[in-house]
Design goal:
The chain has 121 residues and is of the alpha+beta class. It has one domain (7-120). It contains six helices and six strands. A four-stranded mixed β-sheet has the order 1-3-4-2. α1 packs across α2 and α3 (68-77) packs parallel to α6 (109-120).
């Protein structure tokens, strides 16, 4: 079994993280399934103060934000590292309602994916 993948914590300290057991509980899964989701690239984790966590904004209504896994694939396929993906997702964008990750929770979610596709090519 491979290690749990994570990237450097490039996020603002104010970004709330959920520890992996909390993510498992939220999603109704065993924690090893969350580990597999990280290995499969469905989510991105960071290590903060020695603890691996996933940004709380990646979740809504007890599930992963709908378009997030596909968005991560698009950005990775475009050559972006996980650290670069997190920076982009959590950087304020004047043309969106806040940050791209916040926009994923709104009607602008498809626009975020469209922009990621344009950035990747």
């Amino acid at each position: 079994m491979s290690a749990i993948p994570y990237t450097d914590d490039v996020l603002d300290p104010g970004v709330e993280l959920l520890q992996l057991p909390d993510v498992a509980k939220l999603l109704g899964l065993v924690v090893t399934r969350v580990h597999q989701m990280l290995r499969d690239g469905e989510l991105v984790a960071v290590r903060r103060n020695g603890i691996v966590g996933i940004p709380e904004e990646f979740f809504a209504d007890g599930d992963i934000v709908r378009l997030l896994p596909g968005l991560l694939v698009v950005l990775r396929d475009g050559g972006y590292s996980d650290a670069e993906i997190l920076r982009w997702l959590f950087t304020e964008d004047q043309t969106l309602p806040g940050t791209p990750v916040a926009a994923l929770h709104t009607d602008s979610a498809r626009e975020v994916v469209r922009r990621a596709q344009a950035m990747a090519f």
